[in-house]
Amino acid sequence: MQIAGKAAIVTGSGAAGCGRAIARRLASIGAALVVTDINESGCEQTVRQIQSEGGKAAFLRADVRSQDEVHNLIDFAETTFGPLGIYVNNASGPEHRFDQPLEYWSETVQTEFLGTIYGTRLAIDAMRRSGGGAIVNMSSISALWHGRKGGSLSYDAAKAGILRLTTGLAFLAKENIRVNCFAPGWIASEQVRSFWDPLTPEQRKEYGAPARLLQLDEVAAAVVCLATDESLAGRVLVWWSEDAPGLIPWADRGYGALEPIALHL
Q1: What is the model's pTM?
Q2: CA distance 28 to 1
Q3: Catalytic residue among 87, 104, 118, 155
């Protein structure tokens, strides 16, 4: 898929993390970026960086938890830069512990899962109008890691739902619309680094933390690959921080091995 001249939206691109790195990478290869977040000052900074690097960018504040705001976001992209070619569901919120009030669980699910559903469904409509495009959803290894210690249950459940949403939309490739998903490990964002950097190698093993973090440019490269490789549709790319990236085999049942259990029928 050719990126140059395509309008692209990256949600959650107003923070100095994955969203900004992805937006800058797409702009560097010719996409016209709509930067969006609830952090307006951060969006302005992302736009300035893209423009200073010779790229095209504009921003619109949007909360992905609102279907109407996502609809307006896509309208803005089409009006500003033309037909939508790329949509990256990157917006994310804080992970909440299981013992926090239920409204925090709902907030996580609304941002991570419903926001991705709204963006995906409305982007599909826009891409049908334009003759095709690519959607990239962001999941996490936490959606795959059976028996993971700690973390946020609502976050993990939402990210698992995103995996199934993605694979279930593989059939859209016949309309030249490809939906793929990236499930990264620990990423070298500011928040993660502040926890990971002070740990000794022994403490990292104790906490189940990797020996290295995925760099932001590695994340951006993975997303661009999923957006541009026309052979990929309905696929999930997994990159555990210490290993090489790889695709989950198509029709994989979810577990490579199962422990036998005797059932008394």
Answers
A1: 0.93
A2: 15
A3: 155
